[in-house]
Write a structure and sequence with these properties.
The chain has 249 residues and is an alpha/beta fold. The protein has helices at residues 53-60, 83-89, 106-117, 126-132, 148-160, 178-193, 205-211, 229-232, 236-248; strands spanning 15-24, 27-37, 42-46, 68-73, 76-77, 91-93, 166-170, 197-201, 214-219, 222-227. The protein is globular.
Length: 249
């Protein structure tokens, strides 16, 4: 399969996903998915459960090796590259279920991430990062004492400490109350305004509508729509496979 991207519309894309494939036994989790993400853009990945959203992030961030297609980051092929190498190139992520070092404090968790993944000698302001995610008052608490929302914010802080150029965010909004959702959405928009590219997997359509510039809708490992969410909800196929079932539940 040719690794050359077919999308010529975004010459400045930071990441190009080209006909990406991932199989688990006889099951095709990703079946020829293609899209791009540009610096300063927030792209949403949405779709029903099992559509391939998290698998796509797992392949992009090196947890799984692709079985076909190409991943091009700043024009460089990165498919199958180890996660730690991708972090050093500027790609990091959050997880649906955070797994901090429970016996370490919040500050120590972030320090470990920064030491492990920060590129070069870039300045790192621990206090400002923790304050931006409302973790500064808990800096010296063990991560085991944090609630689930605080652990999500710690997971985000650890990813941001590595100074990513591309941040993949996997269901960060789950479990947040409306005020927390607004704060997190604004924080993600701030990151995008500073030039970071974000790829956001989420089920909460209100959150997706608030933060994303475009969405890719996946179904059964294939992309079925690309564009703004407002247009997606008018697309018959999207309504049938995802939004229709969501609204009809």
């Amino acid at each position: 399969m040719s690794p050359e991207p077919q999308d010529k519309a975004a010459p400045q894309a930071l990441l190009r996903v080209v006909r990406l494939e991932k199989r688990f036994g006889g099951f095709s989790a990703l079946d020829g998915v293609s899209f791009h993400v540009q610096p300063g853009e927030i792209l949403g990945l949405v779709g029903p459960n099992g559509s391939g959203k998290t698998t796509c992030i797992n392949v992009i961030t090196g947890l799984h090796k692709p079985d076909g297609g190409a991943l091009l980051y700043q024009g460089r092929a990165i498919g199958g590259m180890a996660s730690h190498r991708l972090v050093h190139l500027g790609i990091n992520r959050t997880f649906q279920v955070p797994k901090p070092f429970l016996t370490l404090t919040v500050r120590e968790n972030v320090e470990v991430a920064a030491a492990y993944g920060r590129r070069g000698s870039e300045a790192f302001d621990m206090q400002a990062l923790l304050a931006s995610l409302e973790l500064d008052r808990d800096a010296d608490r063990p991560a085991a004492e944090l609630n689930s929302v605080q652990q999500k914010m710690l997971d985000l802080a650890r990813a941001l400490a590595t100074k990513p150029k591309l941040l993949c965010v996997d269901e960060l909004a789950a479990g947040l109350n409306p005020a927390e959702l607004d704060r997190v959405a604004e924080r993600l928009r701030e990151l995008a305004r500073a030039g970071m590219a974000l790829l956001v997997v989420e089920h909460l359509m209100g959150f997706i509508d608030h933060v994303t510039d475009r969405v890719i809708v996946l179904n059964a490992g294939k992309e079925i729509f690309e564009g703004e969410l407002a247009a997606a909800i008018e697309d018959r196929q999207v309504v049938e496979v995802f939004l229709g079932s969501e609204h009809g539940a």
